[in-house]
Amino acid sequence: MRQNRVVDLLQGGECGTPVTVKGWVRSVRAGREIAFIALNDGSCLVSLQVVVEKSLEGFAEICRIATGSAVAVDGTLRQSPAEGQTLELAAGRLELIGAADEAYPLQKKRHSFEYLRTIAHLRPRTNTFGAVFRVRSSLAHAVHRFFAERGFLYVHTPIITASDCEGAGEMFRVTTLSSQAPPLPAGTVDCSEDFFGRPTSLTVSGQLEGELFAQAFADIYTFGPTFRAENSNTARHAAEFWMIEPEMAFADLLDDARLAEDFFRYLCRHVLENCSEDMTFFDAQIEKGLLERVRRVADSAFEIMEYSEAVRRLEHAPVSFQFPVAWGVDLQSEHERYITEKIVNGPVFLINYPQDIKAFYMRQNNDGRTVAAMDLLVPKVGEIIGGSQREERLDLLTERMLATGIDPAALWWYLDTRRWGSTPHAGFGLGFERLIMYLTGMENIRDVIPFPRTPRHAEF
Ligand code: 4AD
Ligand code: MG
Fold it and tell me: How far does the centroid of ligand 1 lie from the alpha carbon of residue 431, in Å?
C-alpha cells in the first residue's frame, strides 16, 4: 500500500496500528517539547493531527516546516486527548517531501472567494474548495449510478459539431485555418479548406446525437462538457459547463418530468447520505439551513405549473420586476425566482411554453401556439433543468425548422429518425454546476467548477 488515507484512519482506524500518511501541512504549532502538525490529504475535510515529540530526530527542523509543505509521516494511531477529534498520529518518522515558504498564499487567515479565483491552482487546498470538489466528484458518480440502476445506456456524444442544437448561435468556432492569412477567395473565409471541410464548433448540447441513440436503445443519457459563447457575465453562466442529458423513446412530457424529479431527488438524497461531513460544513459556513432545505426537497413532490398560469400569477404579483412580463416573453431570472421562491416555495416544473421562445425540436401542442417544453425551477438558482417532448412528426418538424431559419438539408440525419421508426420521445438537460450550487449553497458558478471559463477568463 502506498499510504493510508486520512478519511479511512479517522473513520475506522484502530489505536496502536502503524500507518503512513502523506499530505500537505495546513499549520504547525511548535512548542519547546512538542509540535502539532495539521495534515490534510484532501480525502476529507478535517486534517489529521500529527504529534511530534522532541525526541524525534530532526525535531528543530520539523518545527520550522512551513504551511503548504508536502510531508510523509510514519507513526502510530492513538486516542487524542484534544477536543473535537478522537484519533491522532504519534509521529515515528517525518520526511519533508516538498517544502513551501512564507510566500505560499494560503496562510491561515480566511480569503475571499474573489481572491481565491485568482489562485484557482491552489484553492483546492482550502476547506471550502476541498468540500466543493469532493461533492462534485461524488455527484458525478451518483449520476452514473442513477442511470445505470435504471438501465440507461451511456453515450459519448461528440464535442466538435457542425450543428447548433439550440439554434441560438452561441457557438465557439473550431478551426485550423490560419488566423493571419485564412483563405479568402470571395472575401469570406473558405471553410472547404478547413480541417473538416466545413464550419464546425464546440457543441452546446449533446441532445441531437442523444436522440439518435434513443431511437436504438430507448433510454440513454450523455454527461459531458458543453460550450456556450453567450456573453452573459452572471453568477449562473459559464462558457464551459457540464450537462447531463437523458433521452427516452416511447415517452411524453409527463414521463420526462417524472424522470427529472426522481433524478433530482436522488441526487439530493445522495449528498445527504454520502457527503455528510462536507454538507455539514456548507450548512455551517456557506448557507445556514442548507441541510434542512435539501432534506425538504428530497422528500417533496414537485409541482407542475403551466407557463400561462405562471405569467398570470406574475402579472398579479405585488412587486415590480425590472423586465415586464406578458404572455409570450421569455422569463427572466427574477421571474423564475419569484415563481419558485415566493409563489411555490419549492421546486416547480413550468410546462407548455410559447413556441416562439423555444428551440425548433420541441413538440407542438394542439393549441397551435405552445410546445411541450418543461423547465425545472428551484429556489436560489432559478432554471436548473431544461427539457421537452420532441417533435416526432416529420412534416411538423420540417415546418418548424424552416420557420426558425434552420436548413433541413443540413440536419438530414436528424430528420431520418422521423422517417423510419419515429417514436414519441422526450428528454432534458441538467446543468451540473447549477446542481452543485444548489446543493452546496455556493452562490457563484465560478466556485463550483475547477477552472471556470467566463468572458475574458481562461487563465488556468
Ligand atoms: O435549457 P438548455 O439550454 O437546454 C438544452 O441544452 C437542451 N438541449 C437540453 C435537453 O433537452 N437535452 O440547458 C439545459 C441546462 C439549463 O437548465 C442550465 O441548468 C444549464 O443547462 N445551462 C448552463 N449552465 C451553466 N452555464 C450556462 N451558460 C448554461 N446554459 C445552460
Ligand atoms: Mg433552458
Answer: 6
Q: What is the pLDDT of residue 54?
A: 97
- Residue 298: pLDDT band (50, 70, 90) is very high
Do residues 259 and 246 lie in contact, with contact meaning Cβ atoms separated by under 8 Å? Answer: yes
pLDDT in tens, 231-286: 888 999 999 999 999 999 999 999 999 999 999 999 999 999 999 999 999 999 99
Residue 274 CA to its chain's centroid (Å): 17
Q: State which residues have CB under 5 angstroms from ligand 2, the bound ion.
A: 386
What is the distance between the alpha carbons of residues 257 and 248, in angstroms, rounded to a whole number? 12
Q: Whose CA is nearest to atom 20 of ligand 1?
A: 431
What are the start-end ranges of the H helices in 373-457? 394-403, 412-419, 432-440
Q: Which ligand is nearest to the CA of 353?
A: 2
Structural domains of the chain, ranges and CATH numbers in brackets: 3-98 (2.40.50.140), 124-447 (3.30.930.10)
Nearest ligand atom owner, CA of 357? 2
pLDDT per residue over 74-87, tens digit each?
999 999 988 777 89
- Going by C-alpha positions, the residue among 275, 7, 283 that lies closest to residue 142 is 275
Instruction: Tell me which residue has its CA closest to atom 15 in ligand 1.
Output: 431
pLDDT for the residue 119: 97
At residue 210 the predicted structure's pLDDT band, cuts being 50, 70 and 90, is very high
Return the ligand 1 atom nearest residue 243 CA: 21
Q: What angle do CA 129, 134, 139 make, to 5 degrees?
A: 125
228 dihedral zone (left: phi>0; alpha: psi -120 to 50; beta): beta
CB-based burial label for 370 (10 Å; 0-12, 13-18, 19+): buried
C-alpha cell at 444: 457563484
**What is the per-residue DSSP string for 152-186?**
PEE----SEESS-TTSS----EE--S-SSS---TT
Average confidence score pLDDT of the chain: 96
Burial of 214 (0-12, 13-18, 19+ CB in 10 A): buried
Closest CA to ligand 1's atom 22: 431
> pLDDT band for position 35 (50/70/90)?
very high
Q: What is the pTM of this model?
A: 0.96
Q: Which residues make beta-bridge pairs with 382?
A: 378
212: amino acid identity, one letter:
L
Per-residue pLDDT, 165: 83
In this structure, which ligand is nearest to the CA of 383?
1
